[in-house]
Write the structure tokens for this entry.
Amino acid sequence: MKIVAYTDGSSRGNPGPGGFGLVLMAGKHYKEISQGFRLTTNNRMELLSVIVAIESLKTPGSEITIYSDSKYVVDAVEKKWVFGWEKKNFKDKKNPDLWKRFLKIYPKHKVQFVWVKGHAGNPMNEKVDELAVNAALSGNLEPDTFYEEYMKDKQD
């Protein structure tokens, strides 16, 4: 069964409180997932939404099409930049923790990306944007531990 995911990330200030939202659809199945974080970036949330979508797949070798309005994520994978970054151990690249997490699960499935223009009236893209924004504003915010440590190190 083919799976479709719409993913989005948000941060209120960049960095600032953030969140991700995603919708998974397969046949008659529909699932929404979102989470907020107290200090993060938009790109981290965009990438995390994709990771959580793929991690949610129960069966290895699943076919999933991910719709994202993040050029950062879509281009990094589709243009194969992330595989070059991996060879250089992500030297001078942002979000190495999340890219490594992505690269652990990405090969286990048949993943296809489709870039969609954000805030252009696509109902599912609007839905995941709403989930991401609401998660960021929810007050139920977890620490983005890797990012918070990174920011603390920059200030020391």
